[in-house]
Please model this.
Amino acid sequence: MAKVRVAINGYGTIGKRVADAVVKQPDMEVVGVAKTRANFEAEHAIRKGYPLYVAGDGKASEFDAAGLKLAGTIQDLLGKADVVVDATPDKVGRDNTKLYDAANVRAIFQGGEKADVADVSFSALGNYAAAKGKRRVRVVSCNTTGISRAVAVLLPRWGVDHWDVALVRRAADPSESKKGPINGIVPTFQLPSHHGPDVQTIFPGLPISTSAVVVPTTLMHVHVNRVRLHRAPESLAELVGAFRAAPRFHVFAAWEHVDGTPQAMEFARQRGLGSGDMLENVVWENGVGLDGSDAFFFQGIHQESVTVPENIDAIRAMFDLAPDGPTSISMTDRALGLRA
Ligand code: NAD
Model:
């Protein structure tokens, strides 16, 4: 079967990782990436063999001046693609829908867009089947992806009476120098925060409430979860075992002395998958607790990469390339070097 031809529009933190993940898959290929600016990332794209196109308000002359060879414009690229992964900054994706409609190309959007940009919001563990055959899919944000994965583990096993998450959010990505805070903890004065309703786009009606603070770190988000389960797990070991058995979870044992996000990301850098990424939810074995039917756990979410495998599964669902979610997840994870 011919491979699905994937274009990536917006070649930043998410876009470049999605491109690198697509080329590893047996059933899809990168036909090109589109950027607005000539910079080191554009040069990397060319070095990796991704045809480079100019998008948005970008100027071909700027690329020419930098000696970066363009293959054409975003319109040219869309003409060669079956699907475009839009990884442009928040809200730019919505503007791009006109472009994608005109080219009659399917599109995947990211979590910086509102849910109504697409036919369906997507989490591979949460609602894979809902994206089957769809033309517009939104991969939910890093935080929503992380929470949805955890819901997919606990909800079918024990049921959920109430889920409460306090999100400790990273201030910026490591490559960003214009965001903050660099000192202080900034509460998000929207209570409950938008994350709960976003999780409900994947799990309608889930009783969940969320609140958030932003802290001066770039490594990961951390979620502090308290879940009142409908039925109590038999033991703490059974609860930890459910996370251990789930795809896209990495449980650090106590003996590993991964005390927090610095060691988790050091592990990821040394492991060398993606761009030194932690694509799984990080759960600490000694950070899981059980009190009757109340489950407690911390999870770390590497914002730059957790949604990357989800983009791959979204493509597979849209083009019906796998019979079900578990098959797609296993194909994706094997190709990315994750435990499959
Ligand atoms: P980014 O700023 O790192 O990358 C966006 C890229 O798009 C940049 O290279 C920018 O120059 C380019 N761009 C700007 N306007 C464009 C246009 N009109 N056409 C083509 N390219 C254009 O952003 P990001 O962090 O990769 O975020 C992309 C999307 O992914 C957003 O919706 C964001 O909310 C979502 N997301 C980000 C993270 C994260 O932590 N970085 C995590 C999950 C989801």
In short: The chain has a mean pLDDT of 98.
